[in-house]
Design a protein that fits this description.
Blueprint (H helix, E strand, L loop, with lengths): L2 E5 L10 H12 L4 E5 H11 L7 H8 L1 H8 L8 H18 L5 E3 L4 E3 L7 H9 L7 H15 L3 E5 L3 H17 L4 E5 L1 H7 L14 E2 L5 H7 L27 E4 L2 E2 L10 H4 L5 E2 L2 H15 L3 E4 L6 H9 L6 E5 L8 H9 L2 E9 L3 H6 L6 H14 L2 E8 L6 H13 L6 E6 L2 E2 L21 E2 L9 H12 L3 H8 L10 H8 L5
Helix pairs in contact: 3-5, 4-5, 6-8, 7-8, 13-14
Length: 511
């Protein structure tokens, strides 16, 4: 059964999408004919390629520098300093924003919103499918998609929907498919679909529009769809059909997931735990074998490990058998990162950056979140990584049910003490996930935006409400000179996806 795999807009276009690359690897391993279309990067480049009749000076200047800015984001030299990088990113953002001027759509390099539709309401997504011409990308995909279908003539289309920012365009594409190709089977999967389907109240509202919705890792369910039996072996993702030179990064970043789910699975209110996603991991030797094969064929500049937390066996395997290409990923704070010899070997293996979920500088908050480490260990890990030259992208979360404003100020104190070890920082406000039932302890009044809502409104037990958190982050946390400098160094829109490219330069590593 010939299959077309589509990754729809809009997601930050820094690297090829790993989900459909993995599915392409599965289909290739079974000799099932398929074609991959990264509509995300193509659609963004189409909008950036247009000229708009706006007389604003800022738009004129951005348009004038467009070709140079695109080239700059694909050049390693741009990541020697943040100022030239920010100018290029903001110019391209302004051009995208201009493409939606005069419409209810708000567009950026990382998001797509339309005030006429809510991505939390299935009825609005169905309406987006019924009126695909309302989508900003419609003039392009209404020509491009039929051209691909007429040329390739697949019997099945699989759409990878991972983020809310993709939902409206994904359903607009589905609407076009169902209108023009009613006999074509449409399968919908991906991270966002999994979150919808793991909600206990899920009752598929898309029957008649989508032939199959798939939650979790799609391999076994897809094989059943194709009438194939599942096997025991693993298979590498395949990036042969992706336009590797088109992404807005120095060619190219290789995303690779050695596991799905999380091996810790204890953090309070974590979506992985709430959605009961099982932990599945490749053997480290298998994962490194797959990566080695891709490196020989594609010669990536950087490896991005996508694991929710890179396991200790995987980190040990990389330290013992380096991939030969710089890499980064997300790791838990544990005793192994306290070991100077171990972190030195990680550095020598090519590690340029680790993402760490510290979340809070107050031990009581960390304990109530069941993060499983002492704040003193976090301090030692940060100091240790700094000593060996591994950059840190740290995550902090404010507004969990166990936090107070005094706790938040202790987090500020922690960040100030470690301002030299924190290279980049992501700060967010806690959202209460609907899955898992934890929200019922703090329920407000079933105040959900729609039937596809992922989060619940809740009453904070300490009165630490979102407006107060925002005020603290704006007036105290973000205005602190030490913290402001760290926040200002964070790459706009691309965040942790581009941060390691700066680390490559500062650590002296090359690909």
């Amino acid at each position: 059964m010939k299959t077309l795999l589509i990754f729809p807009p809009l997601v930050k276009p820094s690297e090829p999408p790993p989900g459909i690359a993995k599915i392409a690897g599965l289909l290739a391993s079974r000799n099932i004919p398929h074609r991959v279309w990264d509509a995300n990067v193509e659609g963004i480049l189409v909008l950036l390629g247009r000229k708009y009749d706006w007389k604003d000076t800022w738009y004129y200047q951005a348009e004038k520098r467009k070709a140079r800015d695109l080239s700059a984001l694909r050049s390693p030299n741009t990541y020697l300093g943040i100022d030239r990088y920010k100018r290029a990113v903001m110019d391209l953002h302004r051009i995208l924003a201009a493409s939606s001027r005069g419409s209810p759509v708000r567009l950026s390099l990382s998001d797509y919103k339309d005030e006429r539709f809510s991505t939390a309401k299935s009825g609005d997504l169905i309406r987006a499918a019924e009126t695909p011409e309302a989508n900003l990308f419609y003039p392009w995909f209404s020509r491009r998609l039929p051209g691909i279908l007429d040329e390739y003539q697949p019997r099945c289309v699989g759409i990878s929907l991972n983020f809310l920012s993709q939902a409206l365009t994904a359903f607009a594409m589905i609407g076009l498919l169902k209108k023009r190709y009613p006999r074509l089977a449409v399968i919908l999967g991906g991270g966002l679909v999994t979150s919808w389907m793991r909600n206990p109240s899920w009752n598929n509202p898309f029957r008649g529009l989508i032939d199959e919705c798939i939650d979790g890792p799609a391999e076994i369910k897809l094989l059943r769809w194709f009438g194939e039996k599942a096997g025991d072996g693993t298979f590498p993702p395949v990036y042969d059909d992706f336009p590797l030179d088109d992404y807005l990064s120095p060619p190219y970043i290789l995303p690779y997931a050695a596991s799905s789910g999380c091996y810790w699975r204890r953090c309070s209110f974590c979506p992985e735990k709430a959605e009961k996603n099982p932990y599945r991991a490749e053997l480290p030797a298998e994962a490194l074998g797959h990566i080695g094969g891709i490196i020989k064929r594609k010669r990536p500049r950087l490896i991005h490990f996508l694991d929710n937390a890179m396991s200790v066996p995987l980190l040990r395997a990389i330290a013992e058998d380096p991939p030969g290409v710089p890499w980064y990923g997300y790791a838990r704070i544990d005793e192994h990162l306290e070991n100077p010899d171990f972190t030195r070997r990680l550095k020598e293996s090519g590690c340029v950056m680790l993402k760490l979920g510290i979340e809070s500088g107050e031990q009581g908050v960390i304990d109530r979140m069941d993060k499983g480490f002492r704040i003193e260990r976090a301090s030692r890990v940060l100091e240790n990584l700094k000593a060996v030259g591994i950059a840190v992208y740290a995550y902090f979360l404010f507004g969990t049910p166990g936090e107070t404003i005094d706790d938040a100020r202790r987090t500020l104190d922690f960040c100030m003490r470690h301002r030299r070890e924190l290279d980049w920082m992501h700060v967010s406000i806690f959202n209460m996930p609907l899955c898992g039932g934890g929200h019922r302890m703090f329920e407000k009044h079933n105040n959900y935006e729609g039937d596809l809502s992922l989060y619940a409104d809740f009453i904070h037990p300490s009165g630490w409400e979102r407006n107060l958190i925002r005020r603290f982050l704006d007036r105290e946390f973000g205005k602190n000179p030490s913290i402001a400098g760290i926040l200002g160094a964070t790459p706009p829109f691309f965040d942790s996806n581009h941060a390691p490219l700066f680390a490559l330069n500062t650590t002296g590593m090359t690909a």
